[in-house]
Amino acid sequence: MEYVVITFLCLSILLYLLLGGADFGAGIVELFTSHKNRSRTRETMHHTIGPVWEANHMWLIIAVVILFVGFPAIYSVMSVYLHIPLVIMLLGIIARGTAFVFRHYDAVVDEMQVVYNRIFAYSSVVTPLFLGIIAGSVIAGKIDPQADSFLEAYVFSWLHLFSVAVGLFTVALCGFLASVYLIGEAEEQQDRRRFTNKARGMNMAAVTCGALVFIAAAVEGVPLVRWVFGNAVSLTAVIAATLSLILLWFWLSQGKTKKIRVLAGFQVTMILLAVGYAHFPDFIILRGASNLSLLENQAPPSTMAALGWALLLGSVLILPFLFYLFYGFQKKAPGYLH
């Protein structure tokens, strides 16, 4: 049953990056859209993510619950030594959701709409930035349970070049995912071309930030090159992601909206597989020789069994309705942009 729980944990993290990340990316796209086109971009985003954006946070909640119940030692270390970026990320989620609601449903339309728009756009950058910083911190080997100062324990555990580079890479990935998804949601050809150009630009930004991650890893002593190129599975994932990148650019020029959505999700999956496979089952890499493992740092077997059955039964009851929710809101009324 432990592998069932671990599978749900990995899937929850992946789906949150793919779906929640695309929601964050919508705000990133808006931030980098010219003033004259922002109103149309906002309208497209509102009808695309408005009905389902809150449901995407379900994956983050599931991941947190799994860590809390099934891997309390891992949850404890993260919540203690990474509490600053965690709080900033959660505040970003709250600020973004609040601004999204008020800028569309506020009873009074006044200059506060400008404030709501700015909060939405900036928090859409801050949230994935710190999500990436947290992800980089758990594998960077900078968390030191023996630290004897506040800065060493709670600041330098996450504030370093590698984690910041991973954060920037995450922002670029979210912007890329949103651009790709929005291409198929735009009704006007002009809007499709804009989002296609945005997808190309965000993709180039992601490649650049990815290179920065490798440079930062070399500087910080993180064995990223060995993880990514040192085993057959990770190397295959990297090759698949690279080849799919070429195909994605070709399909972008052909306007294959459904295919590029699948391919974009495939690329992100391959990136996570390439990095995560080499150090599995270690989830947190600590400073020194000790790490926290998904196989060795578990709750008691009875707890893992109960958690596994709860996840299996919950998925049977919830997932079909969640998929129907997404399907239902794909049916847009004709001319909804007007």
From TrEMBL:
UniProt record, GO biological process: aerobic electron transport chain
TM spans (from-to): 6-32, 53-74, 80-99, 119-140, 160-183, 204-222, 228-252, 264-286, 306-327
Single GO MF descriptor: oxidoreductase activity, acting on diphenols and related substances as donors, oxygen as acceptor
Membrane topology: Multi-pass membrane protein
Keywords for this protein: Cell membrane, Membrane, Transmembrane, Transmembrane helix
Compartments, as annotated in UniProt: Cell membrane
Coiled coil region boundaries: none
One Gene Ontology CC term in the entry: cytochrome complex
Taxonomic superkingdom: Bacteria
Membership in a protein family: Belongs to the cytochrome ubiquinol oxidase subunit 2 family.
UniProt-recorded name of the protein: Cytochrome bd-I ubiquinol oxidase subunit 2 apoprotein
Source organism per UniProt: Pontibacter ummariensis
